[in-house]
Amino acid sequence: MQDGIFQINKGDTLTKVTHKLKKFNFITNVNFFVITSIVFNRDNIKIGKYRISNGMSSLEIAKKLSRGEIVTKKITIPEGFNIYQIAERMEAEEITSSKKFLNYCFDSNFINSIGISASSAEGYIFPDTYIFPLNSNARDIIIIMHNRLKKILKSIVTSKMNKLGLNLHQLLTLSSLVEKEAKIASERKYISAVFHNRLKRGVKLDSCATILYATKKFKGKLRYRDLRYNSPYNTYQNKGLPPTPICSPGRESIYATLNPVMANYLYFVSRNDGSHYFSKNLKEHNRAVDYYQKDIKNGFIDRQKL
What we know:
Elements: E1 4-8, H1 14-23, H2 30-39, E2 48-52, H3 58-67, E3 72-76, H4 83-92, H5 98-105, H6 108-113, E4 129-133, H7 138-155, H8 160-164, H9 168-181, H10 188-201, H11 208-215, H12 251-258, E5 267-270, E6 276-279, H13 282-293
Antiparallel strand pairs: 1-2, 3-4, 5-6
Helix pairs in contact: 2-3, 4-5, 5-7, 9-10, 9-12, 10-12
């Protein structure tokens, strides 16, 4: 016998499985394995991938197959990943097909059946560490990740949604912007405040992250010509929130969206070290942009401490 991974497919019978085991030298006697499985009520085999070790007896193998002790893998989905990045990682880790994962993320009948009232599952599957069987059904993966989101939402006081004038879709969409824009955890509530303030005033959100999502430049840098990219996700051109979330927001970003700091900030600009400078008016913001993004020595002094 040899060590190895053994695959049982949907529709495989005990006889077929037994002959496959013999073919790959996991067992030596076909009849003995079949009789052993039946006598010990281990003939109800389950689909999946199994790790079979050298020295395992026929009974031990039969027990493993009937118990469904399939090979699993731990996978971490970082906060801020979108469904395209999640699909890519799922395939790289042999969890499920990227194509099938995305197909089901956009399958309106499927996502509606599990309680997602949106055009896709974007933002509705929670970023976390999971343990999944290899070659899982993409639908099962999406259901598990969506259920994790529902559990997280229950642990947060979402009653504040009504006070903020948000429904669930708007909450997840706004949270996804906070997730993508905030590089430092302590700034989430300030970035949240900026977006809330701009929404109240009917001012465009001007979020670079939404354009990166629209252009699918998930790893690239934003160029000035991208600001003119024609898309409903372009918040430099369109007022209000984008049509859907732009990533999977984590718990802290959802919490920050529900609990923005009480401040009148309307703008923020990167200091190029992960942090941001927040401004209450355009004049102050423009000076900060010139100083940090254009390297113009304009006498700007940054004394801001949040």
